[in-house]
């Protein structure tokens, strides 16, 4: 399927299953794969920022992480039929790593967060190879690169916030042996049990943003990007 584009930002119309199936083929061919989550806020920023736009569009998969992208695709007669959230994509990739016996490396967040996330992932996916982890406060990047390569991990999850995590991936990928890269933002906090996800009721209706807003009213300014984005899509000619 052809990628959709919103104000110069590409979005992949693939489901979780289609992405996993494609990644499986790419690993067999020794091809690297990068995943970046796209939401209305990122589209609005990327439209004005050429460097951010190029960073997003250079990824293998730009997943539609946001109900606004789903609605925009419906408004424009696109093919995106469901959200593909960053944390759920990580879940699917962990399950894939468990089944295919691929090593996983976690990089980012505080020590107590990443270590607990690694522990909980090991419990949730028995037998998964947590090849290693490192907190986001390590000063020696060369030592980190050596640690990741020595671990033999095929999948690398980086939790540093966007776009910092994607910039780190792009800068260091040429020297890394891992094949699948995903910037996962605050997902380690979720796996560590430090942050609770919205109840399934909210997630099923695509209202996870509303749940977070009710919990954190200070997010209101960020959430204003959603109606602005939809209005722009509605009145755009293409």
TrEMBL record:
Name of the featured protein: N-acetylglucosaminyldiphosphoundecaprenol N-acetyl-beta-D-mannosaminyltransferase
Function according to Swiss-Prot or TrEMBL: Catalyzes the conversion of GlcNAc-PP-undecaprenol into ManNAc-GlcNAc-PP-undecaprenol, the first committed lipid intermediate in the de novo synthesis of teichoic acid.
Reactions listed under catalytic activity: UDP-N-acetyl-alpha-D-mannosamine + N-acetyl-alpha-D-glucosaminyl-di-trans,octa-cis-undecaprenyl diphosphate = N-acetyl-beta-D-mannosaminyl-(1->4)-N-acetyl-alpha-D-glucosaminyl di-trans,octa-cis-undecaprenyl diphosphate + UDP + H(+)
Matching InterPro entries: TagA_TarA (IPR034714), WecG_TagA_CpsF (IPR004629)
Pfam families: Glyco_tran_WecG
Family per record: Belongs to the glycosyltransferase 26 family. TagA/TarA subfamily.
Keywords: Cell wall biogenesis/degradation, Glycosyltransferase, Teichoic acid biosynthesis, Transferase
Listed pathway(s): Cell wall biogenesis; teichoic acid biosynthesis
EC number: 2.4.1.187
Organism for this UniProt entry: Rossellomorea oryzaecorticis
UniProt KW Cell wall biogenesis/degradation keyword: yes
């Amino acid at each position: 399927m052809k990628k959709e584009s919103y104000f110069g930002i590409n979005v992949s119309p693939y489901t979780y299953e289609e992405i996993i199936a494609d990644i499986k083929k790419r690993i067999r061919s020794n091809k690297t794969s990068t995943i970046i989550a796209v939401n209305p806020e990122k589209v609005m920023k990327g439209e004005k920022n050429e460097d951010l736009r190029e960073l997003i569009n250079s990824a293998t998969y730009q997943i539609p992480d946001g109900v606004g992208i789903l609605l925009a695709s419906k408004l424009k007669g696109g093919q995106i039929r469901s959200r593909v959230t960053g944390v759920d994509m990580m879940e699917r990739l962990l399950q894939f790593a468990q089944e295919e016996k691929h090593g996983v490396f976690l990089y980012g967040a505080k020590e107590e967060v990443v270590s607990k996330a690694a522990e909980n992932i090991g419990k949730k996916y028995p037998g998964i190879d947590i090849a290693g982890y490192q907190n986001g406060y390590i000063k020696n990047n060369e030592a980190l690169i050596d640690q990741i390569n020595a671990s033999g991990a095929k999948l690398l999850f980086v939790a540093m916030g966007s776009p910092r995590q994607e910039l780190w991936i792009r800068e260091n990928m040429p020297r890394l042996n891992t094949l699948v890269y995903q910037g996962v933002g605050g997902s380690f906090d979720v796996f560590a049990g430090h942050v609770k996800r919205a109840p399934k009721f909210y997630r099923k209706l695509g209202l996870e943003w509303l749940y977070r807003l009710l919990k954190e009213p200070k997010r209101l300014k960020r959430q204003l990007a959603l109606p602005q984005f939809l209005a722009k899509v509605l009145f755009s000619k293409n």
